[in-house]
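Re: weekly structure request thread

Next one in the queue (107 aa):
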Amino acid sequence: MYQERIMLSPKEILEKEFKIDTRGYRPQEVDKFLDTVITDYEEMFAMMREYERDKKDLIDENIRLKQEIRSLRTKLEVVRDSSSPEINNADLLRRLSNLEKIIYGDK
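Done, posted below.
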């Protein structure tokens, strides 16, 4: 992805040779190259900001999903505990006893 947006590689910058004029390097050639380097740096920093935003979003989503997992595990434990056969049988006997008292009265 970045290869489409960045024009120069570090190797190209390192190996760049300017043609020497009678007074030294050609200013236009050096300026043009430096403009390209500046553009690449600006693009690189923009990409880094974009990646940092993406990273923050992923971290936030990861935290939210972990909280949801904890919540679901807690709910699952509650459901497992409440669906225990011993508790259900005792609960059913208690309910049956209460119904008998309502129907037949306290004898």
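The first helix runs from residue 2 to 5. The two ends are 84 Å apart (CA to CA).
Next request, please.
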